[in-house]
Amino acid sequence: MAVAVEVEHGKEKVAKEIIEAIDEEKKSVTFKVIEGDLMELYKTFIITVHVDTKGEDNLVSWTFEFEKLNESVEDPNSLMEFCLNVTKDIETHHIQLQRT
């Protein structure tokens, strides 16, 4: 799967990823980035999305595991906005499903 992510000063970046694991019991999905702009900065980049449900509330956690190509590469903090937007899109989708 290839996704476009905005990570630097409004500049769109592309990452191609594969699903490494789906754990329905733990409500998590792990992706491994295999191609794209992120691989120009990192040797490895793994993203895990986890949902923790408490009653009707859901808490979504995003975890990045990465190895920088060198020490001058910054941490991927700019991906937080992308994660927030994806989480909001999923929430909107689920709310619409509940109303139908």
UniProtKB/TrEMBL annotation:
Coiled coil: none annotated. Gene3D superfamilies: 3.30.530.20. Signal peptide: none annotated. It comes from Escallonia rubra. It comes from the Eukaryota. This is Bet v I/Major latex protein domain-containing protein. Residues 2-97 form the Bet v I/Major latex protein domain. The lineage of its organism: Eukaryota, Viridiplantae, Streptophyta, Embryophyta, Tracheophyta. Transmembrane segments: none annotated. GO terms for biological process: defense response. InterPro entries: Bet_v_I/MLP, MLP-like_ligand-binding, START-like_dom_sf.
